[in-house]
Amino acid sequence: MIATLTRISICTLVLLCLGACSPSGGASETTQGEDGTNDALTPDLGTPLSDQLSPSDGVVPADQLAPSDGVEPADQLAADDSAATDDQLGATIESITIGSQIWMAANLRIATPDSKCYGDVAANCETYGRLYSFAEALTACPAGWRLPTDEDWKTLEAHLGMPSDDLDLLGFSLERGSDEGEQLRLGGSSGFGLPMAGYATADGYFALDEKIYLWTATVLSNGQVIRRRVEALSPTIYRFSNPAEGFWIAVRCIHE
Question: Is residue 143 part of a domain?
């Protein structure tokens, strides 16, 4: 009986104290801000409730959230979040070292305004990489990477065994070397893993699973751009030039 009376007395004292400490004799009050929304309830000292919360209460104020909490603060979101894929911003870029060069281990997939998925099928971008116009290819590689030059490709080809006399051969159907194209294909001995990504023009999409065309950053005096072609049924790698405009082909970035 004594214990029961003691508990009642303590509860009564707490309730009386809360009533006395409230500015209006009640437990608390709600105020309205200039934007018409209700501010947080304020206890006896007038301190906003959100300021009194800490992670130990099981609730973390919004301004203390970090990306590691699973929520990204609004001021850290990209302006165009639809393009903020892990390929662009993320995580790990897989690379392969061949000789003195470091290359990306897959075709570029970063979305840019003038790039395409083969056949307008998104799954093809995952499998083969995107197809880029030359103007887009020049700037599409992420920081620390760039579009390789013709010289970069010749360095790679020489390392794979192409004779020096063949390196500068230029022609759409002119075979160079021996099996360097086969080494560079998906499943080839170099590990470079080129998929046969095809190409696009204004007339449509062509040569998926048959050929891959790749941009270089090298422009000839006549305005044409040097590029590479590897075919599923040919062991060689072709070096030729075409106009810069009107083609969408693959990009494989090289490390700066």
Answer: yes
Beta-strand runs (E) in 49-206:
95-98, 101-104, 115-116, 131-132, 145-146, 199-201, 204-206
**Do 31 and 23 meet the contact criterion of CB atoms below 8 Å apart?**
no
Residue 21 one-letter amino acid: C
Mapping DSSP to helix (H, G, I), strand (E, B) and coil, where does residue 121 land?
A: coil
Can you tell me the distance from the alpha carbon of 154 to that of 78, in angstroms, rounded to the nearest whole number?
38
Does any domain span residue 32? no
Cα–Cα nearest to 141, from 129, 124, 156, 154: 129
In the chain, the number of structural domains is 1
What single letter denotes the amino acid at residue 92?
T
Q: For residue 188, tell me if it sits in a domain.
A: yes
120: CB partners within 8 A, 6+ apart: none
In this prediction, what percent of the chain has a pLDDT beyond 90?
Answer: 64
Residue type, 28: S
DSSP conformation class of 256: -
Walk along the chain (256 residues) in steps of 10 and give the mean pLDDT of each run.
40 40 39 38 41 42 40 34 38 90 98 98 98 98 98 99 98 97 98 99 98 99 98 98 98 98
Question: Each residue of 60-72: pLDDT tens digit?
Answer: 343 443 433 333 3
Contact between 197 and 229 (Cβ < 8 Å): no
Q: Is residue 101 part of a domain?
A: yes
**Which residues, 6 or more positions from 215, have their beta carbon under 8 angstroms from its beta carbon?**
132, 134, 137, 147, 225, 227, 249, 250, 251
* C-beta of residue 226 within 8 angstroms of C-beta of residue 240: yes
DSSP β-bridge partners for residue 131: 116
What domain range is 101 assigned to?
94-255
